[in-house]
Amino acid sequence: MNNDFPRIVTLLRKERGLSQKQAALELGVSQALLSHYEKGIRECGLDFVVKIADYYEVSCDYLLGRSLDRNTAAFSSSGTSAQPAAKDENRKTAALTAMNKKLILNSLQIVFDILEQIDHKGLTAEVSSYFMLSVYKMLRSVYSLNQKNPQAMFSVIPECYAGISSALQNVIEANLHCLALGKAPAPHHNLDSSTVPYLSPDVISKAHPDSAPSLYSLIRDTEEKMKKLL
Are 214 and 102 in contact (CB under 8 A)? Predict the structure, then answer.
């Protein structure tokens, strides 16, 4: 199979709030066998891939990590599809844009909901600044693709903005680390660890049933990119 399948199958079960025993019973396999599938100890056959895809109402491509869209199959690596390539290119771009927008916005919603629960002004300010800097950097990168666009929209010169904004993000990460250690940088007050909620896939799925799948997809896609650099 692949490395994505065990993790995705496990997350889907937890999203439904199902015990391993209950899921195994409904799938017609033993709990021990399902446990082996979820841990990646054993590989299942293609018939079971189709069966579990139907059970969780997702595509086989999603189960195998080939698509972030639960219901739409991934396009083949050769670039071919049932639609003529020229006509389908805009559809692929539009679908990718909509999908990634949903992943990011839903994930941000969860992050800010957690920040609201913690109710720490300094923490919220630091995290918000980090996200704002990310948006700023990407906007300027896209804006700069057309050299005719007026640079007067920005006050920091093009040669400096990337390095300075990245440096600011590093400072924010350092501040967050200090908050976690109870050594809040001025002017923030220390974070009371008792206000930080317990989080797990089960907790997040129950609190955010509509947004959690996007967060899990974002995590999986981001970590796959990270692993390629390790």
Answer: yes
